[in-house]
Design a protein that fits this description.
7-stranded mixed β-sheet; binds uridine 5'-triphosphate; alpha/beta; 404 residues; single chain
Length: 404
Amino acid sequence: MLQKATELLQSLHQPHLIAHMQTLAPDLQKAFAAQISELDFSVLQAENAAEIRGTFAPLYATTLAEIEQNRALYTETGLAAIRAGKVGAVMLAGGQGTRLGFDKPKGTFNIGITRELYIFECLINNLLDVTKAAGAYVPLFIMTSIENNRDTREFFEAHDYFGYDRDSVWFFEQEQLPATDTAGRLMLAAPGRIATAPNGNGGWYVSMEKTGMLDVLHESGIEWLNVFAMDNVLQRIADPCFVGAVIASGKASGAKVVAKAAPEEKVGVLCLEDGRPSIVEYYEMTEEMISRREPDGTLSYNYGVILNYLFRVDKLDETLHVRLPLHRAFKKLRYMNEAGEIVKPESPNAYKFETLALDMVKLQENCLAYEVDRQREFAPIKNKDGVDSVDTARELLRRNGVVL
Ligand code: UTP
């Protein structure tokens, strides 16, 4: 086993880890070799996904005005699907939240001022609005990282699931991938332990399969999954009107989108790529794409995604074997330096490899772009201060009548 690990590290050009292995006591050496045999090192050779793109074209959204005209019908269709147990929700809560710089799971962050109000609590409150209207609980699958799984579960337990039905909640873990420093060298987390990070939010369906969640899905007859980011405290989950609109459209998927605040706004835009629904990142857009307008004056690439998608389960099953592109993200990662000290960096120091949920949209034949009002549905908490921070989210919550 040690020999095999050494050969592998040699072929990966990681001599510092071979040297490290030689300094370890036999039991740690064994554990190190075992971890090496399990990790997926193909990420080290992966091409950066951002570089390989097709031809983009605009994808038009169902606008707020159009939705308003059909609201009653869509809502009734969505509520009927929820009552029939056909709609589940998947909360993506495996991120490390490095920009917020909060040591515990981000969802356990208290954004209340005069009272306790946790990010997870905001989301459950939003979901409870729907379950009350439907008279039925929506099965909720919560994806955590290996690292934050226990804290997340314990937090939900300690708060009695914020009034949600605990039997309608499942937790599952996502996988980890090795991370590298800026020179492409694998890093250590501890003696005999390579530093790894969660593999991004794109692996959620594969992780659901690996952890047995698909059995739950299939046995309970869930046909639609609403997957969403946990860091948007105004996130509307299993929104009946959205669900109903996607069902009525006959499309295989749906994405909630918001109109851009300005042409240059830094958001990923829902569009077509080689005829399939796709998301173009703001830095991938040409000047022509950024400023292009439709005859009615609206931007052709106008609708930014907010990480709230609806997928058909049977269509997701067909995509299980597809390997999503890997993205390299430069983030902060705790590691062990050459002196054997654990370092908690103040600024980004490592490349993490992530697949992204937005790339799953491209695997679908089509996607309904469904416009929502950002003032009412988009309050992401990414940073400590400034844009998309605790302060901006608080302000938006207040405007939506939430007491802080
Ligand atoms: P972000 O892309 O903002 O990543 O996640 P992050 O790790 O939470 O935060 P930073 O970049 O380190 O500051 C968007 C959503 O995807 C989830 C997050 O929990 C959040 O809901 N996510 C992200 C996962 O579930 N797993 C991951 O590996 C990454």
